[in-house]
C-alpha cells in the first residue's frame, strides 16, 4: 500500500492482533482486553483466537514507520527499540479504540471534532503548552550587534560545511559507518 513512499527501503511487515498479542503489563486493563470486552451497542466483542476469520466487520489500519538513527554502534538497537515502542503504542491504541466503541459509535463528525478539541484542551491544561525550544532565523546580523566577544567564533547560518572539513572520498563506506572529517594540519 505504501509503494510510492519507500520504494528502495528494506521493509518488515508487522501484523498486530489486538486480541492475542501481548502488551506491556503496566498498560493492561481487563476492561480494555478484547478477549473479555463485549460492546452493548454493537454486540461486537469477546475476540477469541481466530477472530479475524469469523468476525465482521474487520478494520485494517496501515501504518508506515521509518526510523533512522545513524550513529555507529547504536543504530540497530535504537531503531529496533523505537519500532517496538511504536508497535506497542499502536497495539494499545487499537485495543482501546475497540474497547471504547460504545463511547464513540453513535458520534457525528462534529461531535468527534468537539471531543478532540475538548481532549486537547484538557491535555494542555494538565501538562501545559510548551513553546518551541529552538527557533531558527535566516536573518544575518552585523558583527557589531553580536553579544559575544569579538574573539568568539560565530555560527554560520549556512548548512554547507567549511572547505577545510572535507569528507574523504577515496574509500567505500558502510551505510551505518559514521562520516569522518579530515581537519587541516595546524
TrEMBL record:
<feature type="compositionally biased region" description="Low complexity">
    <location>
        <begin position="140"/>
        <end position="162"/>
    </location>
</feature>
<dbReference type="GO" id="GO:0035091">
    <property type="term" value="F:phosphatidylinositol binding"/>
</dbReference>
<dbReference type="Pfam" id="PF02121">
    <property type="entry name" value="IP_trans"/>
</dbReference>
<feature type="region of interest" description="Disordered">
    <location>
        <begin position="140"/>
        <end position="186"/>
    </location>
</feature>
<dbReference type="InterPro" id="IPR023393">
    <property type="entry name" value="START-like_dom_sf"/>
</dbReference>
<feature type="domain" description="Phosphatidylinositol transfer protein N-terminal">
    <location>
        <begin position="9"/>
        <end position="121"/>
    </location>
</feature>
<dbReference type="InterPro" id="IPR055261">
    <property type="entry name" value="PI_transfer_N"/>
</dbReference>
<protein>
    <submittedName>
        <fullName>PITC1 protein</fullName>
    </submittedName>
</protein>
<dbReference type="InterPro" id="IPR001666">
    <property type="entry name" value="PI_transfer"/>
</dbReference>
<dbReference type="GO" id="GO:0005737">
    <property type="term" value="C:cytoplasm"/>
</dbReference>
<dbReference type="GO" id="GO:0008526">
    <property type="term" value="F:phosphatidylinositol transfer activity"/>
</dbReference>
